[in-house]
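FORM 7B: Structural annotation worksheet

SECTION A. Query
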Amino acid sequence: MSQPYIDAKKRFMQDFINELHKRNAPTEIIVGYEFENELTFQLDQKPLSLSSGTIQTASDVYDMSSQKELAMSANLVNWSNQVSDAIKQVEPTALTTISFTSPIVLAKQKFATKNTQIVSTFWIFVDSDKGGSSIDFVDLHLYPAAFEEIVPCKKKCPEVPEIRSVPISVDDQMNAYQITSNKKPIILGEFGLSKDNPTLETPADFLLNWQVSSCTYPFQGWLTWAWDQAAKITNYWSVDENDGAINQVMAPIYRANPCKAEKTLPTPTPPSLPPPVGYLGEVSCTIFNGWAGDTSNVTRSVDVHFYADGSNFLGMTTAALPREKAVCDANGSTENPCNHGFVFNTPVSLKDGKSHTIDVYAISPDGFNPKLTNSGKTITCPATNPGDLNSDGKVDIFDYNILIGDFGKTGSAGFVPSDIDNNGKVDIFDYNLLVSNYGK
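SECTION B. Predicted structure
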């Protein structure tokens, strides 16, 4: 690793975190900053493919005939320490980590040629006595996998060998790491189930049993891949599919002990305050509107969250627009003007020619968030191309000019058509969506 590469990585991480601060992101909910995902070594690429000569790195000079292992180890410690320290310069309370994927799976998939190279460098991070990396915890990714092998034949062998699939278990993968002790916390930061991976169990039961079987090892946290779109894009079962079946066996409120299969029903906590009230009015292919208010604090503006088809979060806004006096009467308020209305632009994602059920929730400080009266309305909007901002049936220069004119603006989710991804700001992500559909 060269010093310019390390410096670039440090700048990237600091710029990323500074931008989060600039946008007032709630960084206190971030578990940790993982600055390298699934660290591996390309042993068939230079300089690790060299069998002679020396290389200059940010750490030192190394002889490729005898010091490859040392070169990898020393450079990884130097790199990880510098990047971790750079992160903490701008976010002093941050935790830092990197992740590894299973060495045995890598070897079977021919992504690595020697398990020992993965294992030995892994130990630099997990055991401070073996190298002293300053990252705070280690993230392992373990997925159910299998490899194919030829079935041995004892007598006459068939012309076409019989192939069988051999599953790779949690034990197989963890044994490849050769973990006997650890001085840094270890989490199982990714585990999930591909839809291409057949199992006799339901996806929910399989993942539950996978998590329980991992408890033989010193994991101190678990994260399932993945919540919604990220899993679907990669053809993995998402936590919110099938009415949240996986969530109902993986979430701590349903299983307080991750190492036991028994489910526990959450105990409902009665609201400490009267719940908010409100009404969902128009639900069209253009806007959703209505009102919401807090009967325990009639002047407070209530946030409202929008969902489609049960669990698909669309966005949020604050009910603070002027409405008629009757709204304040229903809220028990004498305010004038009566600022408890909301308008939410219909997201492009719903304009796909399919029927969608819309629910809206009023958000309460004590976490009791009731649906607004009249929730459950359905809409079916003609399919459109993301980026057709002027609704003329094509994504062209006129739409591009609209987005450029709105670029950098912020507001409630979907506040202008240029907020294509409905996140409350017109930014590079909206630009990319428009450009990817340009000419359609």
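SECTION C. Observations
Confidence is low (pLDDT under 50) at residues 110-119. The longest helix spans residues 68-90.

SECTION D. Sign-off
Analyst initials: ____
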